[in-house]
Amino acid sequence: xxxxxxxxxxxxxxxxxxxxxxxxxxxxxxxxxxxxxxxxxxxxxxxxxxxxxxxxxxxxxxxxxxxxxxxxxxxxxxxxxxxxxxxxxxxxxxxxxxxxxxxxxxxxxxxxxxxxxxxxxxxxxxxxxxxxxxxxxxxxxxxxxxxxxxxxxxxxxxxxxxxxxxxxxxxxxxxxxxxxxxxxxxxxxxxxxxxxxxxxxxxxxxxxxxxxxxxxxxxxxxxxxxxxxxxxxxxxxxxxxxxxxxxxxxxxxxxxxxxxxxxxxxxxxxxxxxxxxxxxxxxxxxxxxxxxxxxxxxxxxxxxxxxxxxxxxxxxxxxxxxxxxxxxxxxxxxxxxxxxxxxxxxxxxxxxxxxxxxxxxxxxxxxxxxxxxxxxxxxxxxxxxxxxxxxxxxxxxxxxxxxxxxxxxxxxxxxxxxxxxxxxxxxxxxxxxxxxxxxxxxxxxxxxxxxxxxxxxxxxxxxxxxxxxxxxxxxxxxxxxxxxxxxxxxxxxxxxxxxxxxxxxxxxxxxxxxxxxxxxxxxxxxxxxxxxxxxxxxxxxxxxxxxxxxxxxxxxxxxxxxxxxxxxxxxxxxxxxxxxxxxxxxxxxxxxxxxxxxxxxxxxxxxxxxxxxxxxxxxxxxxxxxxxxxxxxxxxxxxxxxxxxxxxxxxxxxxxxxxxxxxxxxxxxxxxxxxxxxxxxxxxxxxxxxxxxxxxxxxxxxxxxxxxxxxxxxxxxxxxxxxxxxxxxxxxxxxxxxxxxxxxxxxxxxxxxxxxxxxxxxxxxxxxxxxxxxxxxxxxxxxxxxxxxxxxxxxxxxxxxxxxxx
Length: 806
Known about the structure:
Layout lengths: L1 H15 L2 H30 L11 E5 L5 H10 L4 E14 L5 E8 L3 H5 L5 E2 L4 H6 L3 E4 L1 H7 L10 E4 L2 E8 L15 E4 L3 H4 L18 E6 L5 H18 L10 E4 L12 H32 L1 H9 L4 H35 L18 H26 L4 H5 L11 H32 L10 E7 L7 H16 L4 E7 L9 E7 L11 E7 L3 H5 L3 E4 L13 E5 H7 L9 E4 L2 E9 L14 E5 L11 E8 L5 H12 L6 E5 H8 L1 H35 L1 H9 L4 H33 L12 H27 L3 H6 L2
Parallel strand pairs: 3-8, 5-7, 14-19, 16-18
Antiparallel strand pairs: 1-9, 1-10, 2-3, 2-6, 2-9, 4-7, 5-8, 6-7, 11-20, 11-21, 12-20, 13-14, 13-17, 15-18, 16-19, 17-18
């Protein structure tokens, strides 16, 4: 131990004498280790950490297949009893009101034994009981976050009354901190039982009966009984569902159902794909490998300049093991310092990632990723492993210094010992090419997507959500709201157009119904359906969707007016070929409507999806259904900045108690469609640029070191008549082989990365030749520039000085 402490003190003094080398090495390692620590913290919080508030998460299983109706759920719970304890949930938007202003929240409708199956314990009061489900009691459990933010963490909230969708509910308890169930992205504010659902149902959902077998709305999961494995759980689920289907004369397919482990966070659901984390992890690992290759090159260069010192230590009796330990001590100190600095980089990166908005109102910050003990342990282990792996080989090579030539300060020409450095350079080039190619593919994909004609113009449009059904509006009151608010907004100063709609293009929600069309006879066995959107007057002007024929909706298309519809060009062309669709009838959801107009196609599902047939219905004729669900207010203004205040003021004047949520520019909805490409191209671009700088630095360092070893050779060549240009080409030629090898290996990595990114690419092939050619050109140019600087110095070597120095 004393010898080790002596080595560490000696290494610290040695590094202090070379501040430039030390700072460069620590900075390189801090970036690599810090980025890897940040990504580990994210993956640990989202994928690896046990589900917060849940007991023995390894015993939980997700029931995969179709969503369950309540009668089917009850049959499954009974049939699987003894092997799997089954529970279920359904996410619903709710309106919370009470002592303070109304608030839109996320509720989970669950079975009464939901918390028992999870093994959760209350923070205050009690949780839900099976008897609450059976009795249909209007009781609720608050999330810990809602309890602390809205109610100030007051224990007296237990036993108090809140209003959910206008109905009084008694708060019986508070859930444990961080409890989010078993599915990624589901963050809940309040829990109620299925039995209480009739008290909450509004709009279209109020018509649905809990006893209906056709209403599939529940997501099932369960806890394994002691001694029961996954295969037995799947068998229990399938057998219970098969018996229930047979008893009700329904078809059943066993292959459609399974029970799978609920791993720590689970099923990623519809949130961030697991491959996004894989891509980021691969990127930071590549950056760390490039950083470590540079560290190894720096250590080799440093050791080559210390050959005389090492030889003298050997002459004084130092063993090879003693020299290796001395050199490894320096590597460990560098890596530990890099790891310490990397923690600051990790904190900064986590703070930056927490601010990145994600689809479905999910935030990475909500998962509580932080630099905790697990992350610090990972950082320390990574630092130690880096020091050992990438410090050992340079130390082994440096300890093989030839004693006599080194003491005599002879300067041999380049030997095979430089091959290690060139191998590391080739590896850096390969990794760098893979990162740059991935960033280039996502960047080109983003550019292609941004240039796509959406069929509408989201720029300058502001959106805001309201839900009249949650506030118990009657159809007549909803009709008055629909007529007043958009009309008054359209008359406001600076507003170009305003409207209201139940669904919007690229918003993630599209209604679909079967239909009949005048003059169209579907093939036998075919039941055509069409996407449809309930929209208000002024909708097409607000989104600048062109009118191709006929007219648009007006305020005269009310409930008491003849039913009308508008179709897009794709539907008119497919179902009314060779004739005008205007004036024809279209029957949707049992109502025959006259087509009064044809508008241009819009991309409603996704930017990468081709526009399909679509029908538009006037929302004022659907005040007993679409108008009582979540709706979007659309306002097009000159600058976009005044719209949020205008919307809130007009809604307040119409109904002071109606919450207005999700006020945001429409462009943000479109941008969310391209978030993976934006984030991926940005992050991979940053890591790629960093790796390019590191690779160029590595090439420069190797060529400089190699040229210094050959200074006498260059002097002799120039003395014998070689031109400086010949020496310059000779040095540059040395760079060609590692460059070609690195580019060749990097192309293979780039193609493999492109295949992993296939699902995120739009209009770009995974092995896009233009992207690969551009990246190869950038890398080659950077390598030649980095090598040319020391090559020019070598070409201007003074033969007399070179020979005299020997």
